[in-house]
Write the structure tokens for this entry.
Amino acid sequence: MAKIKPSLPQGTRDFGPAVMRKRNYIMQTIREAFQLFGFQPLETPAMEQLDTLTGKYGDEGDQLMFKILNNGESLNKAAAPLAASIQENIPLVRSVRLFAEKALRYDLTIPFARFVSMNQHELAMPFKRYQMQPVWRADRPQKGRYREFYQCDADVVGSDSLLNEIELLLIYDTVFNKLGLQGYELRVNNRKILSGLAELTGRPDLLTDITVAIDKLDKIGMDKVKEELQQRGLGEKEISVIENFLLISGSNDEKLTRLSELLATSPTGMKGIEEISFVLNSGLAQFKATPILDVTLARGLNYYTGMIVEVKAPATVSIGSIGGGGRYDDLTGLFGLPGISGVGISFGVDRIYDVLEQLELFPEAAQQSTKVMFLNLGDASVKVAFPLVMQLRGKGIAAELYHEAAKMDKQMKYADRRAIPYIVILGESELAENKMSIKHLTNREQKTITIAELDGFLFE
Amino acid sequence: MAKIKPSLPQGTRDFGPAVMRKRNYIMQTIREAFQLFGFQPLETPAMEQLDTLTGKYGDEGDQLMFKILNNGESLNKAAAPLAASIQENIPLVRSVRLFAEKALRYDLTIPFARFVSMNQHELAMPFKRYQMQPVWRADRPQKGRYREFYQCDADVVGSDSLLNEIELLLIYDTVFNKLGLQGYELRVNNRKILSGLAELTGRPDLLTDITVAIDKLDKIGMDKVKEELQQRGLGEKEISVIENFLLISGSNDEKLTRLSELLATSPTGMKGIEEISFVLNSGLAQFKATPILDVTLARGLNYYTGMIVEVKAPATVSIGSIGGGGRYDDLTGLFGLPGISGVGISFGVDRIYDVLEQLELFPEAAQQSTKVMFLNLGDASVKVAFPLVMQLRGKGIAAELYHEAAKMDKQMKYADRRAIPYIVILGESELAENKMSIKHLTNREQKTITIAELDGFLFE
């Protein structure tokens, strides 16, 4: 067959060793925190039934979902109905069900909901699960937006306790501290406060419009938000109520006091204030970065009903949100299991990667693979070296023997390209004295030790 | 929208917490070994261009590949040509290219080959990579065969050194020993020996037929193999040469001696013997389970050219092969990069899981999530408990506080279902004395310690 010049599908990426090690470092840090907090691992299949996913992400989601073609006879059978459908001028995107029964998952939440409703009787509630898997979206690729990307989610379902909110904020705090990130912000709000605001304007029916507009404040500024509110049907007086609300400032306590005055007549609003006060002031948890009450935080997704949270990267990197989540009332209603509420958070791995890269926060260990390479100086040297390589591996030190007795130069160059810090030399003179030379490639230090001393040698 | 009863696509699985922990334990053990031996991580996208995959796995592979439907306008554009193609009675499976440009990866080898040829100038050769990702095949689902399953591969490319063969066998040895498996067998052979055999029969042109037939010996027995050889065009005398070869027995050395006599006239066969002798008798490596020369080992895949290996599960579990691999001459020729040879191995995670399960070899740690749960006995108790939970987490101990002040009975039942071994009780009497009770749920022991003593308490 003809040779082809290989390429990657648009919007997808290979992760080579250097990138993989850094990504693994981030994911492992998140995974460990999830586990320390009692969250349990779940993995669901890449494919879901089309029915499971359709209609869950709006029209756009249905469009951007990657559908999987039926195989074999099941595909062939579609020929007749498909021909008929084309005859009637129905666009192919609308007759997908004729030849595709499955699609790639679009997020981790719907598969999680499906799992919970299928396994409700086996699960100990509350069910605390974490899930770290890729999702696929046929978005137009652009800088920082890919068609395959990992989501890292933790959710507690089956519990209304606000302790869960505090725990999830603490997971953020734990992870970003472990990653050495300073100056990030945990911004929280409560959807019920926004409901109270909508009531205050006299337009509770426009809650979604108000939320959507407020959500853009960061990006487009106050004037444009006001314009948008107007376009969405709010009057001057109503907009000024919203503006006053958005301008609330000060410490968390000052904001809470001001909110209590403003929303005194709204039971929903007051409930939101009570909830967020507990989260901020329970005194149970010690945060390294105290969560900030941000009344302008709205988050687009419609299904949030309680606390919402967003993590902002340090201001020095202009990357924006690196995580977010919130409480929802009904996870599994659409799958026939009502009354399952929950709260969840998500980490944006790609953006966290960019932040750590920009701030040079990846530790040495996340940038190293093999620690020690033994030069291959011919059969006599190999005979001594090989068991020593195995000895180091047995102690958990990644070690290699160069694969052939190439020129020293070539072997050193390989070690250099692989960023291997230590080289061990077992040349004729070393062998004669039962010794070896250990060379540190970056600081250029060289030591000679006896072979027996290798076991105690500190490869730092 | 209507509620739907959710289901999973045929042949796919959810991995709930208990299974995930055990799978993670297996994968982590394999990953650590790969890293200790200097292999580097790689991940490629789930989707590849259809052109990258087509024609690489035979007709069957092309059929069983999951293709991904084009999106949006690119799909709609297919309407006219598709209508024409249906008109001409071309089956839809044969006009897939009209509406699908991508497919899910079918194995990890072709994506690896694509990666190597696309990045040849950046890679330090030899390139040692490992890759642990799911692959997808539209096989008819049956016991132990799934449509989504993980492959765990390690390959060295760009080196002909037989040291690589020894290293890869040692990885098997290391992993299966870490997993506590006894009685597994590392069976090796060399494709050049089989070539020698084909020469010996006088039918080198039938090498593939001979290999395919021999490969079935385990399953169908000698008589059926002989039948199949006959069907494949070999005469009685030729078959008896093959039978004599297959009956070679004894120790590795005895087999090697016998082979050397048999294949003395075949330079290729003798080369194979030389290679496998080095792997078995170099004296460099100490195996916990000495590799066994198995002249009947053939392995189906056509592209092997040197050593081949298969790992057999212990005879007490009737599961067969739990890993395999071999040396190949040309990884990337089809992608326009000739001369890249390599050798690789693969672990069968699903089967290893079944073996460990059957032999009850999963350690306690792979079956536990949270180690300590603090009972929730109301606000006063929570105020003391919460910081202590955080203290344990800070020390790397997975700990939880029950989410609400439910009845003790309910909380204990939850801990039991979650298999949490330790319960901490901070009741009124404990609080009054600055103490806590720690109860071990399986051995029923209970201890009372002061709060200050928690830091030193050993949760085993």
